[in-house]
Predict the structure.
Amino acid sequence: MNLFLQGIMWIFDPTHSDGSGGIPSRIGEQLAYTFGAVAIASLVAIPLGLWIGHTGRGRDIAVSLSGGLRALPSLGLLIIFALGIGIGFKAPLVSFVILAIPPILAGAYSGLEAVDRRTIDAARAQGMTEWQVLTKVELPLGFSLLVGGIRSGVLQVVATATLAYFASGGALGVFINEGLKTRNYAELMGASILVTALALILEGIFALLQRLFVPRGVAAGRIKDVRSRSTRPRTTVGSPIHEGK
């Protein structure tokens, strides 16, 4: 507990808030990696995931690809790109993009797959084109899971972005490394608290967004579905049951 308090005191020490190497600057770098990587990954993964979810083609390949990318070691990937591209901002960003693609891709195609097929058939029966089915039926109903995939990608990158230090990319990992080198455990604890707090804040924001993006009809449908599966006996109107017969 004493070490935790020392970490809090280190965070609020004014000397750690000034200049390009201060806490606000490092937090900005951490967020820049996070949202930059997720934005680029979304441009790749969302269209691909929507196509897979709508057509049903290539799903097995997408699942295998997502599993393979998730198995890649983050630090090893970062070092490979640092040696190939060079140290600085680009190498960590590219590696974080690769790490963010699998959860976003999975959220995109699983969101469309979760839509009731009867709803889609009804939309097609009304004369909707495939583009209209995708944009007006499947995407709105599956948007919550898509946001969930983006949420997972954000959390994965914001926690991993501390490794950017190994490619001279800055971020909060600078403080963690300095704390380890100098055995300044207050700095080490303070940086760890900042990373954890940042992840929790982003988790709360995206959890709220995920709830807000659930259409009212879908939420009502879930309640009705739960009620329809209730094990309580139902009274049959007009058909009384007499005991002893």
Confidence is low (pLDDT under 50) at residues 219-245. The two ends are 71 Å apart (CA to CA). The longest helix spans residues 23-55.
